[in-house]
Amino acid sequence: MSTVQWYFPDTLDEAISYLGREKTVPHGGGTSLIKSGIASLEGLVDLSRLGLDSLKMEKGILEAGAGMTFGGVAESLANLHPECILGKALGASASTPMRNRITLGGSASLFPLWSDLIGPMSVLHGVICTEGKNGGTYDLPSWLADRTLQKGSLITSLLFPDPVDWLSSYYRETRVGFDYPAFTVSILARKNNSTIDKVRIAVSGGLDRVRRLTELEERLTGADLSVLASLDIRKMASVEFGRKPAGSPEYLSEIAAVQVERGLKAVLTEEGKSR
Amino acid sequence: MKGSFLVNGRTNEWTFEPDATLLDVLRANGHPEVHRGCDEGVCGSCSVLLEGKLVNSCQVFAASAMEKDILTVAGIGTIHEPHPIQTAFVESGAVQCGFCTPAAILATLALLRKNPNPTDEEIHSALDGNYCRCTGYVKIIEAVRLASRRMSSHD
Questions:
Q1: Do A44 and B127 touch (CB under 8 A)?
Q2: In CATH, which of 2.60.40.1590, 3.40.630.30, 3.30.70.270, 3.10.20.30 is domain B2-75?
Q3: CATH 3.30.390.50 in chain A, residues?
């Protein structure tokens, strides 16, 4: 018999006070705690009354509340900014009933290897906002580097500066749609006629969790589109993987590089778009 | 713990364990129409509408569903007055063993409420969390198309 105590705070301060208690964690509505079990916990803080489920765009910055579900974000962005990579990625994740439960805050708290959020976070330079003991704003590398930031704190929203007006491509490696992806490839680009103005490329699911292909980004930025034919993109897109059910490290590394090359061509050239 | 659950328009006071899922609580309190399948959020057999959104009830803590609007398939039609989606499933041959049917009907309802004229791609996406091991999905998709036509013509 479980003895876990549920708390239903109406304010952030109240929620944070509960989170300071021993073995007490937040529950935004997602599925990770059901999967992991709550037998070892003493308290669960339900976040549904805190109003963290809004999405707004102000001065070009997208702010998504931590309580927004993947489905909610995907649906809102499909209407407002259909090319935004965040909406494309979250709309492709899991299945409809799961997307209606998985929240941004829960996903950012864990960033599992199969995350469909981490790639777009990386290329959009997303920021995690928290309140509480370690309240503040954190970029993705800082957040991933220090898991203790979450102790006694609550993720309240994710900020995405400059999230729209990019050419974008999102790829997830799955056998069937609702599989956990073995890896994902996120690409953003801006071009001016035949010149590539900016490119951001991230591969998630490898040993680095999420890796920006900075060397390739630097070679492409400012270059003419013809560089796509002359550059050895697959070599520069090499990412290390561990063994997974979807394939060996070598296999995953090879096909991730192929998908980076295909994604770049799809985003930057007409030839790729007709693929 | 004790809590109030609004199921199919009716308020119920139920007792449950803190780690119980919504599926556990519904089935323990007279809602066998919500089927237990994989218990992992994969098969979709336990789907209900929670605040109008399709969810896997096996992946929802009952505590977090208290005082929220819950709809099971029993809340949309009866054997004497079936919902147009239920009629469409029967007429299209989309019901074989029937285990996935309540959930597929609720997935269809959630879709058609927000998008009365979905494309095939939108139908596939809306039902992507509902497994059927009998029909091969062809008849289910035909049923969704038929329900869409009938419900649109009644508007």
A1: no
A2: 3.10.20.30
A3: 167-273
- Best of B15, B64, B121 to mutate (most A CBs within 10 Å, chain A): B64
Give the chain A residue whose CA is nearest to the CA of B45: A97
Spatial distance between the Cα atoms of A129 and A145, rounded to a whole number of angstroms? 16
CB contact (8 A) between residue A97 and residue B129: yes
The CATH architecture of the domain made up of A55-161 is 2-Layer Sandwich (3.30)
Domain regions of chain B by residue span? 2-75, 84-153
Complex ipTM, two decimals? 0.95
Which overall architecture, per CATH, does domain A167-273 show?
2-Layer Sandwich (3.30)
Q: Which CATH class is domain B84-153?
A: mainly alpha
Q: What are phi and psi of B129, to 5 degrees?
A: -105, 15
Strands, E, within A135-240: which ranges? 136-139, 153-161, 167-172, 184-192, 195-204, 210-212
Residue-level pLDDT, tens digit, chain A, 275 residues: 788 999 999 999 999 999 999 999 999 999 899 989 999 999 999 999 999 999 999 999 999 999 999 999 999 999 999 999 999 999 999 999 999 999 999 999 999 888 999 999 999 999 999 999 999 999 999 999 998 998 889 999 999 999 999 999 999 999 877 788 999 999 999 999 999 999 999 999 999 999 999 999 999 999 999 999 999 999 999 999 999 999 999 999 999 999 999 999 999 996 555 43
Interface test with B, best of A45, A93, A101, A103 (most B CBs within 10 A): A101
What are A138's strand-pairing partners? Answer: A128
Task: Output the CA–CA distances (angstroms, integers) from residue A173 to A59, A116, A183, B126, in the order listed.
Answer: 34, 11, 5, 21
| Cα dihedral across residues B125, B126, B129, B132: positive or negative | negative
